[in-house]
Structure formats: structure tokens, C-alpha cells
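DM from R.C. (forwarded with permission)

"hey, sorry to bug you on a friday — could you get me a structure for this? deadline for the figure draft is monday and I only need the backbone to look sensible"
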Amino acid sequence: MSIRTRFAPSPTGYLHIGGARTALFNWLYARHHGGTFVLRIEDTDDARNTQEAVEVILSSMQWLGLDWDEGPTSGDVSSAPKGDRGPYFQSQRRDLYQSYVEKLLSNDKAYEHEGAIKFRMPREPVVIPDLVCGDVTRHLTDREEADPDFVIVRSDGKPVFHLVNVIDDLEMGITHVIRGEDHLSNTSRHIALYQALGADCPQFAHIPLILNGDGSKMSKRDLGASMTTYMEEGFVSEAVVNYLCLLGWSPKDDRQKMDLNEVIELFDLPQILRHNARFDMDKLVSLNGQYLAELSADQYRGLAIPALKKAGVHTDDFTSDYLHAAIDSTVGKFKQMSEIGDYAGFYFKKLEDMEWDVEAAGKQLIPENHALVSALRAAFVAEESFVAANIQAAFKSTAKALGGKVGA
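My reply, with the result:
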């Protein structure tokens, strides 16, 4: 069997970290098995979905390195997609959904009710075979579900999530549905729909949720919830992917830093943890610092220049050599590129624009230190090449000559 997984976000805003982790696990499973990863856009909510939101999702996926084998190539629904099982926007598949609704109606699996169409849900318990959670039995005779029939087409004629999700997975040949555990409650309905349509069910795998550090549910407003944040704050994309891998999956050893190719080789659904994952920004930042320190000079500068511009530095006003020297001097000094302005901003300021630390000046700019300052000035003037190594050497030689040493 050729593995086919999918990620099907709704374009109502940015890509949430939970969605990014779901996309990553689907991508990893497909890559591990040499299968196909499909990107599908669930844009049936006309009031909330926008082309701009689709573009944000696509750019976030690309930034993470999660390439898709089939799916849209842009946020424009009219653009040519990749793959032959499209369209990959649900808004373009409504005629297909209608044909399935007519089939359900003709087979008495659905019926009209107050202008809407409801699916006739079986009354016996539904067993959900899950590759992560094990077999889960859903009993449909609880008081709140005395009538388990549910709407599949609203009174305005629009099909609902349950119906279109099943039809799209069926039509696109999806073999494994890997999604958040919060969708487990929907799965009994989906299994019943597959059975009513005379189709085989895909295999299901419901992965643990991502919670805040205090155990509360992570909302879109919480720190670190948006992938856009990491892109704008100059995080290393490989570090973010590395951390996402460890939110609900483990390589069965103590490794925290892993090359993506290693993860692809090791990743499989039985290794996904059952308990919910807790997001820890400090751990992510620490891991990001490790990746920052290992970047090539060009990669480091590529992240640093936008971060400096965001900090208010007019980088185009300086020569490449000067800019690169200033940037290179910050390697290993911080864990987030957004901090570079604090460490390198003074390189790009005129003396009259400097903000003096009055307290420090009061302690250091005193008569007893005049000789040291004069000696340093003379040493700097004597340098033909004013680069970091020569500056450091001047500090050390001056301190030694005056019987002192350079502090940390």
C-alpha cells in the first residue's frame, strides 16, 4: 500500500503551532514510508476564509521545509495545482459533494429536516481503531446524544465539515488520517459516513494536544502559538522543526537536537506519546541558540540583517565588510536573533546618538582611569586594521602594560 497523508487547514488566520505540528507529523510519516503528502485547503467558510490567510499558511509551510507533493501552489484558487486529485480547495469541490449527498439520500442514509439534510447515524456503538490511542469505543446512547443524527448540509445549502472531510479523504485516496486528539470525538461520525458510502476507512491516528506550560489549553493568543512569530523574530526554522518533533514524539533516547533526516528515518506512529505535550518556550529558545551558533556565516547574516532592520538599523548605509564584521562579532552572544540589536546596535550609531549609562560612566570615567583610556586610544590609533581581533589584542597589550587584565 502506498501511504498518502494530508494536512487540511482552514484559512482563517495564521498557522497555529498545533497545526504546524500536525502537518509535520503527516509529512514525516509520508517521508518515512516513501509516500505522498497532500495539502488541502478547507475554505468552505466564506465569511472567514481569505486568500491572504492561505498565503500565510503556504509561506509558513515553506519556511518549515514541509514540501507537499500535491496541493495548491498559491492562495489563488484559480492557480494550477500540483497533483491530479484536485481541486485542492474545498470551495471548488461543491458539485462533487452534492453528488455524494444525493447518493446518501437515495440510499436512505440521509434525510431532509427543517431545510437541512441530516445523516442517519447508526445507533450501535462505534469502535474507532486508532494507531495511537488504541481501540476507542463511542457509545451513542448517552442522554445528550439520544438522537445522534447530525447535519451534513445546512439549510443554506452548504455542506458541513464532517461530510466534506470524509469525501475529500476518500476521493484523494488518503490512507492515514493523522490529526489532533480533539478530533477523536468526530471520528465515529466519519466512520459511519464511510460505511454508508460503501467505502473502506483510512487508518486513524489521533496525536496528543499541545498545552501551555501550566497545563491549560493553548489558544491562538498565547505566546508562541503563531508560526508567524518565529518567522518574524528570526528563529532558525530547523530549530523550530526539531522542537516540534519532540512535542508528542520521542526517539526513545535522551537526544534533544536531531537532524531532520534522522527524524525521518526514526519516525513512526507507534512512537507517538499518549500524554499531551507541554510547550516550553525556554527549551525552544535554548535549542534555537544551538542552531544559531552552528549556522554558516552567510546563513547567520541572512537572519541578522532583517533583524537589525527591524531594530531600526539602516543597514544599507554601511559597507558589506563593516556590516558583516559587526554581525559576525555577535555569534554565540544570544539565543534569539531578535536580540541582535542589543548586542550590535552601537556599531551603527553616531557618537552623539549614543545613550550613555550614567551610573556606569560615574564609576568608570574617573581621574584614576584617564591613563588607561589615553593608552587605549593610542593603541587603537596605531592599528592599521581596526577589526575585532586587533581590538582585542590592543585591549590585552594595554592592560598588561599597565599591570592589569581584561575583564570578562
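R.C.: lifesaver. The CA atoms of residues 317 and 348 lie 9 Å apart.
me: no worries. The domain at 93-207 is CATH 3.40.50.620 (Rossmann fold).
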